[in-house]
Amino acid sequence: MAEAEEREGKELGRARAKAVRLLGPAPLTAAQLTDRLRRCGFAAAVAAQVVAECVGNGWVDDADYARRWIERRRRQGYGMARIRAELKQRGIDEQVAAAALADEDEGEELRAARRAGARKLKSLGTIRDDRDRAKLARFLAARGFAGPTARRIVEEVEEGAEPE
Fold this sequence. Notes:
Number of helices: 9
Radius of gyration: 22 Å
Number of domains: 3
Shape: elongated
Number of strands: 0
Distance between the termini: 68 Å
Strand content: under 5%
Order of helices and strands: HHHHHHHHH
């Protein structure tokens, strides 16, 4: 019995050390850390316990990760739909993601779409025909901007208002 507890304690110690090394270079979500510990060969129960300890110590904070991810992806010109999908892919709980996304205002979505549209216009030059309008709209949709937002940016460009 004592031998089994000792083995379990050593396994936990190795998992804790591995978690610290994994968290060193960049923050991870709880799901990402669990997945990486599992891929390193740790049992599900051990990984879950270590992740719970990391969350308890404040080393893993999915809400903070979501806020930072949103800020970063916004600066890079991505829309809400794409960001929401990326958060889900990273294992952020839907409620946590929704709370972080709720802090974003609609005006910021439009400003980000304008910035992304302006960057795309540099490569397109001017909007000459329906193909160019479609390219711009597809680009914005792929970046995660909703259809009405993409249409608005295309209309602004057609009216001669340069996106920011």
